Amino acid sequence: MSSTSSATSKLAIGIGVTLATGLTYWYYLQWKKRNTVPEKWRRVGTLEQINIFPIKSCAPLKLEDSTEIDCDILGLKYLGCRDRTLMVINDSNEMITARAYPRMVLIATKLLAPQRLILSAPGMETIELDLGALKADGEQLKTMVWSTPVQVRSVGAKYDKWLSKYLLDKESGMRLVHYPLEKPVKAINSRMVRQPFILKDDRGTFNDATSYMLMNLASIKELNTRIPRPVDPLQFRGSFQLKMDTDEPYAEDHWQWVKIGDEVIFRVVAPCTRCIFPNINVNTAIRDPDGEPLNTLKKYRLFKGYATPAIGIHLGLRSAGSVKKNAVVYVEDK
Ligand SMILES: *[C@@H]1O[C@H](CO)[C@@H](O)[C@H](O)[C@H]1NC(C)=O
Q1: Given the DSSP bridges, would you call strands 148-154 and 108-113 parallel, antiparallel or unpaired?
Q2: Where's the MOSC domain (predicted)?
Q3: What is the pTM of this model?
Q4: Residue 94: CB within 6 Å of ligand 1?
Q5: Which residue from 259, 278, 258, 276 is spatially nearest to 268, judged by alpha carbons?
Q6: Would the CB of 100 count as within 6 Å of ligand 1?
Q7: Ligand 1 pocket mutation pick from 57, 87, 88, 90 by most atoms within 8 angstroms of CB
Q8: Is the CB of 164 inside a 6 Å radius of any atom of ligand 1?
Q9: For ligand 1, atom 2, which residue shows the shortest CA distance?
Q10: 225: how many CB neighbours lie within 10 A of its CB?
Q11: Which domains can be identified in the chain, with CATH numbers?
Q12: What is the DSSP pairing of strand 127-130 with strand 116-120?
């Protein structure tokens, strides 16, 4: 190679490196801008319902309208009862959900007093669970939430028997386990890892993807015009159900930030992609015979780069605080 051509190629490499560095820096600035809490907010509606699901896949906690609910990095929490810190596994230590056992959606919970959870289910006597006594001394077990390993502790034989009776009509086979920690440790779900705005601590407890999810009721209303039997918003298992001031179905697809009340702020981190869960009627525990609403969602809510249709948005907490029903909901004002 002559010395001129070597100088030319060195120059070309130099220009290439400079361009690449400049471009990377530009992308970083764009990302940083989009990751900064907005200064201006625009009201979009109010919080119609807040859902805490003490046991994964089961019914939400019954709450009084006036209750203030804490939002911290692990999820919603009320009187010592936290969202999705209880879960059912089987004898092979595999996560059990209503996808395989639809009757789980009829397992209801209410709080008798702080930390005193009452479980009920059709045809079963109620059973009380002292959440304060759970601590970390139960038998340690290894299980997974959608292929993501998670350490859990057994809750107790009495509860295993109750669940086995209700779900299998047997003495054993199912176990109730709890999340023994006060911090998030689960790895980010593999489907979520490439989302640019998700943080390590957004992963929650036994949640599928993140600790918080918001459903726009206007979107569900629009979906319900497309299907023969309307779905209950609860079938989408949102932490928050938003009632918009002026119904704008799917407006949430374009939001980057959500603020609830005066203090709680979330970054929108991903669309919520859907499996067969929303096909289970929450009142009857029966799967929709025509595979709705999932089949209809597949026709118009399949986004590029995602394998399943999306409705609702996953949120990552960026400013903690408390929320209550009817709180004003804001999004970034551009
Ligand atoms: C536990 O559940 C998994 C997934 O549904 C299933 O493949 C496995 O056979 C079950 N194990 C037992 C012992 O029931």
Answers
A1: unpaired
A2: 179-332
A3: 0.91
A4: yes
A5: 258
A6: yes
A7: 90
A8: no
A9: 94
A10: 8
A11: 41-332 (2.40.33.20)
A12: antiparallel
Nearest residue (by CA) to ligand 1, atom 3, is 94
Q: How far, in Å, is the centroid of ligand 1 from the Cα of 89?
A: 9
Distance of alpha carbon 14 from alpha carbon 209, whole angstroms: 42
pLDDT, tens digit (0-9, with 9 covering 90-100), for 290-308: 999 999 999 999 999 899 9
**Of residues 63, 83, 61, the one with CA closest to residue 72:** 83
Gap between the Cα atoms of 242 and 281, Å rounded: 21
The pLDDT tens digits for 203-242 are: 889 998 899 999 999 999 999 999 999 999 999 999 999 9
Question: Considering the chain, what percentage of its residues have pLDDT values greater than 70?
Answer: 99
| DSSP letter for each residue of 62-130 | P--TT--EEEETTEEEETTEETT-EEEEETT--EE-TTT-GGGGG-EEEEEETTEEEEE-TTS--EEEE
Atom of ligand 1 nearest to the CA of 100: 5
- Give me ligand 1 centre to Cα 138, in Å: 22
39-42 CB contacts, 8 Å cutoff, 24+ apart: 40/332, 40/333, 41/259, 41/330, 41/331, 41/332, 41/333, 42/330, 42/331, 42/332, 42/333
